[in-house]
Every structure is written in C-alpha cells, then in structure tokens.
Amino acid sequence: MHSAVKLIIGIIIALAGLYWYAADYVGYGVAGWLGAAALSALKTVFIGVFGLLLIFVGLIVVWIEWEDLKWQAREKAETAKAKKKR
Fold first, then answer.
1. What residues contact 28, with CB distance under 8 A and at least 6 apart?
2. For 24-58, what is each residue's pLDDT tens digit?
3. Which of the 8 DSSP states describes residue 37?
4. Distance between CA 13 and CA 19 in Å, rounded?
5. Taking a C-beta distance cutoff of 8 angstroms, is the pair 75, 63 a contact?
6. Measured distance CA(39)–CA(18) in Å, rounded
7. Measured between alpha carbons, how far is 34 from 24 in angstroms, rounded to an integer?
8. CA 47, 9, 48: angle at the middle one, nearest 5?
9. Deepest of 9, 29, 34, 84, by most Cβ within 10 A of its Cβ?
10. How many other C-beta atoms are found inside a 10 Å radius of the C-beta of residue 35?
C-alpha cells in the first residue's frame, strides 16, 4: 500500500476518534450515545492507564538508550582495533 493511502487512512481514523468525543458538541449524527458520556469514559480510562503509559514509555527510552550505549562501545572497540592494526 502506498504511503499516501496509509496517511489518508490514519487521518480518517484520527478524525473518527475526535468525533467520538466531540459528537455532543458538534450536535449532529449519533450524538445521543456519544459525547459527554464518552468524555467521562475517556477521563476514567486515562486516569487508569496513565501510570502504565509512563512505565512503557520509560522502558522504551531506557531500551533505546541502552542500545545506543552498546553501539557506542562497539564503535569505540572497533576504532581501537583499527588503530592497533596500523
């Protein structure tokens, strides 16, 4: 699938998500069962998931930096070996 198609699909999904929470304020469509109740549910889920989000983001940052440090150590060792051969 072409990147532009994926971009358009992503925009449509994001707009659908925004409409899910803003339907009560927009005032048309299926606003009867969306809107304020959905915002309340979003707040509840956000409060419950925020700690897990922090844990996962923290672990991803640690993992990325750990890999970066390993690459730096490898590069340093390879340059030292190259200098010894000269």
1. none
2. 666 665 555 556 677 788 888 888 888 888 889 99
3. H
4. 10
5. no
6. 11
7. 6
8. 10
9. 34
10. 20
- At 60 the pLDDT is 93
What mean pLDDT, rounded, does the chain reach?
80
- The token pair at 81 is 């070996």
Nearest to 36 by CA among 58, 21, 47, 19: 21
Q: What six digits make up the tokens of 27?
A: 């005032």
Degrees (nearest 5) of the Cα angle 29, 34, 35?
100
Closest by CA position to 44, among listed 56, 36, 33:
36
Tell me the C-alpha distance between 26 and 39, whole Å. Answer: 14
pLDDT at 75: 92
